[in-house]
Task: structure prediction
Amino acid sequence: MTENCDEVQGIVLAEILKQNGQTEYLRRYSLAAGDGAAADRAAFKANIPVVTYEDLQPEIQRIANGDHSAILCGHPISEFLTSSGTSAGERKLMPAISDDLDRRQLLYSLLMPVMKKYVAGLDKGKALYFLFVKAESKTPGGLLARPVLTSYYKSRHFQLRPPPSEDPFNVYTSPTAAILCADAHQSMYIQMLCGLLHRHEVLRVGAVFASGLLRAIHFLQTHYPQLAADIATGELSPSITDPSLRASVAETLKPNPDLASFITDECSKADWAGIITRIWPNTKYLDVVITGAMAQYIPTLQFYSGGLPMASTMYASSECYFGLNLKPMCPPDDICYTILPNMGYFEFLPVSGDGEEIVDLAGVEVGKEYELVVTTYAGLYRYRVGDVLQVSGFHNSAPKFKFLRRKNVVLSIESDKTDEAELQRAVERAAAVLEAAAAGLSVVEYTAHACTDTIPGHYVIYWELLWRRKEEEEEEKVEGEVMEKCCLEMEEEMNSVYKQSRVADRSIGPLEIRVVRTGTFEELMDYAISRGASINQYKVPRCVNFKPILELLDSRVVSTHFSKGLPRWSPGRFD
Ligand code: AMP
Result:
């Protein structure tokens, strides 16, 4: 496939147009498919607009409301995949068809064949992967709406995977029942317990994203006494109430006082450096995505693993699975993904924005940055994914891409993606509470940082305040309770992915406001100007990650406040 990248892309587009040529959407643009693949491809590019989710929302809403006609896709929409990207605060709904599972499965099936080119003996043990399903909901028309991984773990492709005798490269320590348990605590408990019971067999430790693996380590930190007690006695903690979970460990959990005291000894040490290799001594690598927003976790993972290699094996989304890392053991800076040309039809919008034309997968240039645009079997046409990629080279004729960033995202702890507008609205809402509580007090400047020093990480918002009354009141302290309320108000205004992570998954910690001294933001500007920024064009950055600036901000903090409550969130319906 990578040898004939453009040819495969032509075939994929021809298949999509054949399958979906009679849909309302494609007919609207008078796409007279049937003139031959090359002519159809040219007509497709000439007539079909490049769109965003908001452009497609009316069609998506009709499907969600139960309209079964061929609106976007010639095949029935089997479910919606809920993206962690949001629109107006709600998760985006991506249409999916039943064949998509085969395409995803194909990509998964390539991961271990690639990995075994670089790491020997992975068929001689197990993988400790922390995998989770999330809450599902239904659209008004009755279609399921759930995250793509939940859909995959619940599919027969995952559940009926070949037994170890047929596929010794994909043997997991986690029982399938634990992966499928929607109660995040019980699921994690059993997955960790099984990982501990099989500790010598574990050859790789992972989760989908780096943040997920750190959560698991934090879980071990807080729950090892109970886990060790269960292992010592062979009796499962009564806090695990799900019968299928209790049944899943009935065979393996036997009294093992030696293992229990080993775990207690290791986990009660003050120093957790290298804990992963201490507990799972045969681990060859960590299997977690560490690109994009996850890069912030690299130093912490290195600390806990004693510097094990970290493999970011694939690049995928709810819209489409894209590709894989063909050199998964490479250092973090070299990670790149080869897009598989048979997953969808891919185009690339140059980011430079100088009116440069959109190009095909085979037409990208090394070194250039592009926004990914995808056309899928399930009915997205020339859809802007929002990811910015840079071409780093070619594998045969297929380009390899570095993941640079997600467009417009200022804050991200795990799958949450908060943009500048959402942050602005949140600050405005909290500032209104502040002004109502303390007349004459306002937020004059703010910036934010995704703080991952804590597990789970949390949003930190720096506020500079101004008393509009008398000057001598400037240093007057604001009531702590009011500030705590402001923290919660900000959380109430965040999108549903943030709230779900905060409330249901507890994978984001309470939002923090750090009030800084008057004049701090001016100092920030002086600093930027001293480093070459133009005075006229200087804008307060709404997100800071640069260490010297964070240090400057932190050295000016006069008070810190945390959200004491939880924002309102429920899985809800998509109506
Ligand atoms: P979702 O729509 O929730 O499925 O999230 C998909 C998004 O997650 C992608 O569009 C990327 O922004 C991000 N993502 C997925 N895989 C990777 C990866 N390997 N490296 C960096 N970001 C990724």
Remarks:
- The mean pLDDT is 94.
- Residues 121 and 445 are 56 Å apart (CA to CA).
- The longest helix spans residues 210-233.
- Residues 83-85, 148, 289, 291-292, 312, 315-318, 385, 387, 403, 406, 415 surround adenosine monophosphate (CB under 6 Å).
